[in-house]
Amino acid sequence: EEWGTTLRDISGTQFNRGGKRIAVRLVAGDRWLGYVILADRVAGAPYTSEELVLLECISDQVASSLLNLRLTQEIMLGKELEAFQTISAFFVHDLKNAASTLNLMLQNLPVHFDDPNFRADTLRGIGETTSRINQIIERLSSLRTKLELEQLEVDLNRLVEEAMQSFNGTSGIEFTKELQPLPKLIGDAEQLRGVVTNLLLNARDAVGGNGHVKITTAAQDGWVSLSVTDDGCGMSPAFMRDSLFRPFKTTKKKGLGIGMFQTKMIVQAHGGSLRVQSDAGRGTTFHILLPLRTKVP
User: Fold this and answer.
1) Are 229 and 286 in the same domain?
2) 0.90 exceeded by the pTM?
């Protein structure tokens, strides 16, 4: 074959005239992995057809093993890249939410600038958002492939109040709340604040420029519940089944498709659960249950 002629031409000193040296190809599927050169046999005895078949079987086995090693390396590199991309997307999404919060405040500020209470809330909100951005940067500097939670006492109602301050004065959208008295739970306040903010931002986007968003909390039988309801565009059963909680799947033109995937991951990391009810054209409700435990699992 042509490859054999080429091999002889570039390896003239190794392939002298005469003798029974042969080169066995290492091929697995359609992937060329190399070749093995076998030296002359004693007295230049030729290889029998049975021995050639055996050599072919051995070369197939060696090629398969080499391919497995190579594919394993490629898979490991691919997983590292995928993990890095996913975690990076988490941070980008958190920064995007922080930027959206600041942008919302700036949009409402000219309309309500003469209201001293609104100015005070806006300044407080800007300070909290700036602090959140700094915390995101700190988390980014110690990037990990596993979601790490701080185990601290968390007042969920307070997190909701702080998150809703960013939406005060939003034109055309009514935000209401029903917050029942709650015991403090153990968890990561910053991560849970991100969950609440993401759900509120999604609800705001779903209702467009006119609608109603309601957030409620309650406690029962060792669990704390959080629900966010909107009367917006809703979602189709197919989207909820196939795309809602999958990364990089989104219906938003400028969305990253990471928010609900990250939200569900954070809730599950706290030992909780996340459910969704939605009707296309009528609205959506997200239900979160978090356990009242003394230690994060």
Assistant:
1) yes
2) no
